[in-house]
Amino acid sequence: MSDLPAGVQRRTIDGERSLATRGEPVYGEATDGEWRAWNPRRSKLAAMLESGLATGLAGGETVLYLGAAAGTTVSHVADFAGPTYAVEFAPRPMRDLLAACETRPRLFPLLADARTPGEYAHVVEPVDAVVQDVATRGQAAVAVANAQFLREDGRLLLAVKARSEDVTADPESVFEAVLDDLRERYEILTTERLEPSHDDHLGVVARPRS
Amino acid sequence: MTDDAAGAGWFEGVDPDSLAGAREALEAGSADAPADWPARAVAAGFAADADDYYDKLHEATTTVARQRVRELERADDRQLIHAVRAMDDCRRTANELAERVAEWAGARYDDAGTGVEYARELAAGDASGDPTGDADRDPAGERLVALAERTAALADEADELERFVGRAAPDVAPNLAAMAGPVLAARLISLAGGLEALAKQPSSTVQVLGAEDALFAHLRGDAPSPKHGVIYTHEYVSGTRREKRGSAARALAGKLTIAARVDHYGGDRRPELDAELDERIRQIRGGGDE
After folding, report:
1. Which of A34, A120, B63, B286 has the lowest tally of Cβ within 10 angstroms?
2. Chain A closest-CA separation from residue B168 CA (Å)
3. What residues does each domain of chain B span?
4. List of domains in chain A
5. Torsion of CA A107, A113, A118, A119, to 10 degrees
6. CA-nearest residue of chain A to B7?
7. d(CA A167, CA A32)
8. Nearest CA of chain B to the CA of A69: how many Å?
9. How high is the ipTM of this complex?
10. The domain B173-284: what is its CATH number?
11. Which residue in B59, B64, B69 has the most chain A C-beta atoms within 10 A of its own C-beta, making it the best mutation to test that interface?
12. Distance, in angstroms, between A12 CA and closest chain B CA?
């Protein structure tokens, strides 16, 4: 099992063993002092860390987070990472994300579409990690379009949702197709199914091809 | 890293002390590729060091995102509902008054026209047999022209309201407006009582929204079920031949419902929905058995 990034610990909070980061609570999660529980059922990145996937995260990285939604996961990322750019397209969840940004001076909200990175390339610097959790069709295309943000030794941490691509198809064949598309710009390092926390999701770690 | 000439960073041209203009720069700006913006901003004198840059970036991004969110949420469905209902009221009333104007004018002039267009001509004073400036201008003629002016003004307001609906509907419901057109989208939201209510309705209800009389007649048992409500105005229904209209209405209602749900619960634009509908309508019109 690979090590957790600095700033992420396994702790017992409210009698439950769970991952935790240090920061202001955001969505009513259980807390213990300044530590707050990071539930793998609510966060695909937490599920990836929990499963022991070698994410390559050490803590303190610059991160581009695509599909930040209401900020559940990205708030934890900002707790242990460095400058974190959070891209979310929908205004409703963005309102909640803004609350998480208030107590996190290195978390930058961007109301933009992850499918058109030109909209935010004038703001986002090259990053150590791209974390992607967008539930739309064309998840591989989003990852490929955003490969330009990764440094040479950077990592893509992707949670592929099979049902977003095609609800009727067999998840395994959807994952194969997505991985094939990813190979255009990435070298796949490791993958892992995220069951039981997330059905029909595949965690992917990849690095950009030079 | 792509440090060479990717374009201009968002901070260029922004006053570092007030961050005025940051919104314009963040929203309208773009670049072909990312660059080491913190280092560039420091080199350009925008920030003292990387920490200072990140503080400014945080302030600018949170402020702009908050403004945008507030604006988008203010573009709410209530305003749209009022606007589309007012539009229908104005248009209906203008037509009614235009009839009255035509009837009145017909009693006075041999070559009186009909409709809102004639009321406009009369109001503008270029209708033939026009009383303005004419010797036969009398108190009754003055009243007639005044009524024609009000009729034309109401028709103008209906057009203005339609333009407003055309601008507002894509903000409230981007997918629904793109698929249905802004006016039909606004009518559906109005009939359902709101975007949330529309998003929660089954597509069979959406299919017959606006055909309540026919629906209840059907439920009482003395009429066939209505095939479509206001969605009839959509080209995909009205432009499909009669036998296939029910199928087209059902397919359209299904996709419109999904679009309304995406708009209410998500908010992002999904062009693939339009493509799926186009494909389905092509199949239906192609005449294959349903």
Report:
1. B286
2. 16
3. 19-73, 76-167, 173-284
4. 39-208 (3.40.50.150)
5. -70
6. A122
7. 39
8. 9
9. 0.94
10. 1.10.246.90
11. B69
12. 33
